[in-house]
Amino acid sequence: MMTKDVCSDEAQQLILNEGCSIRFIEDFYPTSETVYSYPHFFHAWKKLRAFEMVDICDKCVFLDADIILLQNMDELFDLYDNISFAAVQTCTCNLKKISTFPESWKPENCPYTREQYSNNTTHDNSHANVIFNAGLFLFRPNLTIFQQMLEALNTWDLTEFKFAEQDFLNKFYHDTWTRIPFIYHGIKVFSKSHPHLWDLSKLKTIHYVNAKPWQKSDEGNVEYEIINRLWWEAYEWRSEKK
């Protein structure tokens, strides 16, 4: 899923050569004066167009483009058969103390730190910081749902959504989303904030939030050398196959 201006024709052909399909979408930019936690979050609203894709299948797993798969996870489609939306509870430690993140994001408030996390699928929203990361989620494309989202975008105060579509989806599904084990969405900061939970042998994916492996000059990559190496190994493996 991409807009036509995202990458070159050559890059698109490489994607097609992998056996993937490309769905071109129109831009999607809600009107607001929101100051996002990161400026590029402005573009993440396009993700909501996935809910329009009713011709693909009745259930999909959305993955951000900066995620790599480590293991097959097709079982997600069977384990969560009767749900409308499922995602992984995120870490809200904010160890780097990023000033644009919510003030409540600190280790003592993180659900993982407070040992509220469990591997069951029952959503517990007893604390404000029990939220999901929208980099990976299981959902059902539905035009009625998409229309409801559009109506919400026209009535809600979008300036409160510092994380753009992630904050929006958390509010939209605030009491209905289903929590899935974090092994399905290995957000790289977990390796620092909750190392006792980080086990590469069990993780299904790694999400390279913030600094990307290919941004070699970014100082944010210094402490993630081993994790970044997995991305480069995957990249080099694909290159060798060609």
What does this structure look like?
This protein is an alpha/beta fold and 242 residues long. It has one domain (9-210): Spore Coat Polysaccharide Biosynthesis Protein SpsA, Chain A, CATH 3.90.550. 23% of the residues lie in helices and 12% in strands. It is built from 6 helices and 7 strands; from the N terminus they run H-E-E-H-E-E-H-H-E-E-H-E-H. It has helices spanning 9-17, 76-79, 143-155, 165-172, 190-193, 225-241, and strands at 60-63, 67-69, 85-89, 132-139, 178-180, 186-187, 205-207. The protein has a 4-stranded mixed beta sheet, with helices on one face. It starts with 8 loop residues before the first helix and ends with a helix. Its EC number is 2.4.1.186. It comes from Rotaria sordida.
Task: Please write the CATH class name.
Answer: Alpha Beta
Mean pLDDT: 89
**How far do the termini sit from each other?**
23 Å
Which secondary-structure class do the elements indicate? alpha/beta
The residue fraction in helices comes out at 10-25%
What is the percentage of strand-forming residues? 5-15%
Give the H and E element order. Answer: HEEHEEHHEEHEH
Per DSSP, the total helix count is 6
- Cα Rg: 18 Å
CATH architecture: Alpha-Beta Complex
Tell the overall outline.
Answer: globular
Number of domains: 1
